[in-house]
UniProtKB/TrEMBL annotation:
This is DNA 3'-5' helicase. One of its GO terms (biological process) is recombinational repair. It comes from the Bacteria. The keyword Aminoacyl-tRNA synthetase does not apply. Residues 622-702 form the HRDC domain. The lineage of its organism: Bacteria, Bacillati, Actinomycetota, Actinomycetes, Micromonosporales. Coiled coil: none annotated. Keywords: ATP-binding, Helicase, Hydrolase, Isomerase, Nucleotide-binding. Belongs to the helicase family. UvrD subfamily. It is an enzyme of class 5 (isomerase). Residues 285-546 form the UvrD-like helicase C-terminal domain. Residues 3-284 form the UvrD-like helicase ATP-binding domain. Residues 556-589 are annotated as: Disordered. It catalyses: Couples ATP hydrolysis with the unwinding of duplex DNA by translocating in the 3'-5' direction; ATP + H2O = ADP + phosphate + H(+).
Amino acid sequence: MLAGLDPEQRTAVTAPAGPVCVLAGAGTGKTRAVTSRIAHRALTGAISPRHVLAVTFTARAAAEMRARLTALGVAGVQARTFHAAALRQMRYFAPRLLHGRALPELLDSKVRLVTLAAARAGLRTDRAAARDLAGEIEWAKSSLVEPGEYVVAAAKAQRDTPHEPAKVAEVFAAYETVKRANGVIDFEDLLRAAVWGIEEHPDVAEQIRAQYRHFVVDEYQDVNPLQQRLLDAWLGGRDDLTVVGDASQTIYSFTGATSAYLVDFPRRHRGATVVRLVRDYRSTPQVVGLANAVIAQARGSEARLRLELVGQRPTGPEPELRIFTDEPTEATAVAARCRQLVTAGTPAREIAVLFRTNAQSEAYEKALTEAGVPYVVQGAERFFERVEVRQAMVALRAATRSIPGETPLPAAVVEALAAVGWAPDAPPAGGAVRERWEALAALVQLAEEYAATPPVLPIGEGAAVERPVTLAAFTEELHRRAAQQHVPTVDGVTLASLHSAKGLEWDAVFLVGLAEGTLPTGYAKTPEQVEEERRLLYVGITRARQWLWLSYASARSPGGRNRRPSRFLPQLDRSGGSERAGAGPVPRAERRRNVVVSCRICGATLLAGGDRKLGRCPTCPSDVDEDLLERLRDWRQRVAGAQRVPAYVVFTDATLTALAERRPGRPEELIAIAGIGPRKLGLYGESVLALVGGATVDAICPKESLENPS
């Protein structure tokens, strides 16, 4: 188990019992480290798996943790979200705590009751306004703020409230009244009830603490005060707690989440073991370098725990930075590049377009549709909650009684889906219809994966058996995944907000709309809010494994008002030298006037150093003069030999390629090529212009003169 871990992961796994804080950067293998820690302690007899409670922030993360522990030979660990763990406990203890009554019904959404409460407070609201009020109530309750305390608390937190704070407080109070009258509770009430059950009932506390003795909390930077209160109640003064988090990925402060508990962990838990995971196994060094450059400028309390990642993957392409005249042009270019990637062999599901707000999605949906590129919108609706998927699962269960058992599983699934109108041919045109086809195609893909690698079924004492590859078994697996919200990957380009992209990763990532007023949003008024916007960009960058595109449009619409690029983009080297991601700022003496360079083929503004040298986008066709390029290389070799310097000191390969493509005819055209300054113009300009004009190398640099320099 320890052999495959790096030194820092091994330190986290083998840390002694007690408080352990794992500061884990993006892509550093935190899930592997924390599951290996649980398994190592269990398999060495230090703990019993049934006494472990591992808390995550999504049902999917909990399911992944359980699957990994099972693969490591450890069964019985409870891996749940805060709400799922509280719900399980409260349902069990409700008869005892509520004098024989069951736990009240849990609200799926606050919107309906908030609408009624707003009416009582004299506000007429539509659904969107009700959602905003519901969000503000959730923030207050998660922050342990009562209705009578809301006005002061909102002012202190500098909340951008949907209505005048006193009116929001009135709606908050009315909501609590309406909720009690309807005999229901919300998710915050559920956590509060769990805290109350433990803090006010010693017998309940004793039983829960006897069951759960070892705690693990993932994404600890995202806990809110109410969740921390519940965690403290579970612990009851004990300290066998492992937390995992990254302060640089704190992006949910607007919901009440705070990284303060992660930042202050060593102070609150004296003698805690602190481990830093910085080896990034997800992204190329180029992507890692850009991420480091962005977060290096961070300020505030979270910056105290800033991690400088070290890329572990082989070198990859430099991130592309592009400027477009307007948003439709930007979206069209992104869609065209997505199509090129898919045509070149990158699976569409391994490409993502990420933006700051969901309202930006429409332009990319339209552009991708016109380009014939399939896409899915992340977070719009959970996979197993979609109508077509629910219908398909009913059809699959019915088919278990009619399709012969010897039918290969993928073929059986295709046959069953015919009952809901799906056929394995080319996906239909159109957004919603195509999404429906892709969703059902994902079920077929799941069947193929299931048939290739059947999941194992634990049978106790670390033993397991393979589940049968039958339609009935596969249907059961789908229902299990539905219960755990284990969403399969649909084969389409992912469109997602930066918030909903948290925890995900792709081979190719497009970060779009990186303009002032969008990222950071114009609503970010305080330094803390601006810093959270910076962390959003950092999260977006670290989603990319191999290929990264960053872009913004100078205007929202054709002919619109000009906008500036996001202040978070690293300072670019305008001198034409290296713009390698992560490079430091250019010394003032080396800076040149900021000249906009456009692609001579498609007209897009170029920012990356290599692109500026060539004068074109890397995806636009090259028109290099191969004969000229060969003569330039020969000339460079002779000059470098005479000067006794490496060839790249004269001109780099990129500069030679740019010369052979652009073929400058005058000194001003020569110096316009990034990387050729006044000094090199004086040294080599006359020779280069002669070569471009057709002169031979021997005419410019006779071998005998170079072999016997004066």
